[in-house]
Amino acid sequence: SFLMRGHFNGELWGLTMHPTMQQAYTVGEENLLVNWDLVVRKAKAFTKLDFPSRTLHISQDSKYLAVGCLNGSVLIIDPKSLAIITTLKDRQSEVTLVKFSPVTGGYLAVGFGAPDFEIFIYNVKANFKIQSKLKGSNTRVQHLDFSDDAAKVQFTNASNEIFHYDVKSGKREPNGVSLHRDEKWASWTVPLGFPV
Q1: What's the Cα-to-Cα distance from 8 to each of 12, 30, 129, rounded to whole Å?
Q2: How far apart (Å, rounded) are the C-alpha atoms in residues 26 and 176?
Q3: Contact yes or no for 140/184 (Cβ under 8 A)
Q4: Contact 49, 75 (CB under 8 A)
Q5: Which in 13, 77, 111, 161 has the greatest CB count within 10 A?
Q6: pTM above threshold 0.70
Q7: What is the pLDDT, as a whole number, of residue 45?
């Protein structure tokens, strides 16, 4: 029996909240993924992953948990059992960000670090097939938001630049800040723009 269990080595970077329950998920560089029960303040479940990770996000319908790894892998995990459903491996560089769109069964955005600095949009309904690739950033992606209808995405990078793209086509919208001034966003995590 264990007296205490949790993260123990390396840095703890990844945290996501369950959309409907008093639970959180964390992931760290020691390869540990933990599901926390916030009511009793204890680890509800945990599993050891094959790779160190720094980012994770849960889908709105709680069907998928995406974990971004330092080796470029994205693990799609069942949030209840913490079992791996599938692994996406389309780049070798570190995954710096993962985020599901607000539309159930919509999209998963994955940001990659050096040397790629790209975002891949995966279509969840099409079994996580690549929908589009967003190119143009020259540094790591740090924050990303989907519009309410998941048709648009905005993100910022380490150089404090803001980008806007069409999700389906992957086309950049250079005048996105003014074009989407009144856009309804599902979240606002970027530190730039009109509401800031």
Answers
A1: 9, 7, 35
A2: 33
A3: no
A4: yes
A5: 111
A6: yes
A7: 93
pLDDT along the chain (196 residues), means of 10: 66 92 94 94 93 95 96 97 97 96 89 94 96 95 94 94 94 87 90 79
Position of tokens 């007296």? Answer: 3
Non-local (6+) Cβ contacts of 95 within 8 A are 53, 54, 55, 68, 69, 70, 72, 73, 74, 110, 111, 112, 113
Query: Is 123 within 8 Å of 158 (Cβ atoms)?
Result: no
- Token pair listed for 168: 């389906």
69-92 burial, b at 16+ Cβ within 10 Å, e below that, comes to: bbebbbbbbebeebebeeebeebe
Cα 192 to chain center, whole Å?
A: 19
> Of 130, 86, 138, 82, nearest to 108 (Cα)?
130
